[in-house]
Amino acid sequence: MEALPQPQNEAEVLRAAIAALANRLPTGWTVQSLSDGVHDAYYDALWEVVAPDGTSATLVVEAKRVVEKRDALALLHRLERTTREISGSCGVVVARYLSPPVRKRLSDAGLSYIDATGNMHLNVLRPGLYVADRGADRDPWRGPGRPRGTLKGAPAAKIVRALLDHDRVWAIRELVGVAGVSTGSTYRVTVFLESEDLARRNNSGAMVVPDWVALLRRWSEDYGFVRSSRVTRWIAPRGLSNLVERGAGSPVQYAVTGTLAAAEWASYAPARSAMIYAADAERAAQLWDLRPADAGANVMLAEPETDVVFTRTLATASGLTIAAPTQVAVDLMTGPGRSPSEAEELIEWMTRNESSWRRQ
What we know:
Blueprint: H1 10-24, E1 30-33, E2 45-50, E3 56-66, H2 72-85, E4 90-97, H3 100-108, E5 112-115, E6 120-124, E7 129-133, H4 154-165, H5 172-179, H6 183-195, E8 200-201, E9 207-208, H7 212-220, E10 229-235, H8 240-247, E11 254-257, H9 258-262, E12 274-278, H10 281-287, E13 291-292, E14 299-304, E15 314-315, E16 321-322, H11 325-333, H12 339-352, H13 354-357
Helix pairs in contact: 4-5, 4-7, 7-11, 11-12
């Protein structure tokens, strides 16, 4: 496939977007620009789409080389100023490339969009016009050395857990201290979180998390109990109740997660298997009398890539060590079987009882 030419500036973005729209309009429809360059502080172009019967609508266009999720609300407010003044007009964001999360955020905000790769969602009420198409799901012009936004890895996990476990306003140096990671790693992760609108700066430059549930869900896209650990499978021959008794007070470093741990806050159904983090899985298995299993396992022991899973653990009344609610929730979200449903039950409990688990 021939490589797409990369728009180098906003003028080229506008030309690429109007060409993409013209190529996808139904037979008899046309689109033309009513402006050349920037004519107003609140939009970059005005386009007119004309139906076969001669009726038309104005598209108020904002052009950007790069759009991030956090930009959606500002773009909406910017375009609304003009769309309110021009009856029946529609606000459209055009860009070099729009990622799937950004496209969803724009649609949720009520904005149409077009990018130079062909991603398009245009909804004009009068005359009735709906155009949708799919272009690239990855930025075709991203340089080979440019880092992708991600919450993978130990530093990101430590930063996210600190932000989730504490309800506070953060100075970067404080976050570095609580998370226990380098300043550089903290900066990279927080910049990504800001770009995803998962963290915001207040007037003094301190950082806050506006929606901890959204942050938790985004983390689950990059973190998982199985994919972020070395997992081995075992059978507890005397059942999970015996395993719980053996685990209580055990000298090995461990933290129970999944259904067994979630039952401490939001019991969903009796646990049929156990998910446990262990610093030394072989030693834990010996202490707890577990048997290796290729099939029929009811215990998963995970040696984690980061020790944050052992941070801010809790002890149950029976002496069992369980992971923090945020860790349990993300593990259930990415766990097998009914685990995602159990995660939703736990998140509901956490939302109702935030002051009981989220520290200052």
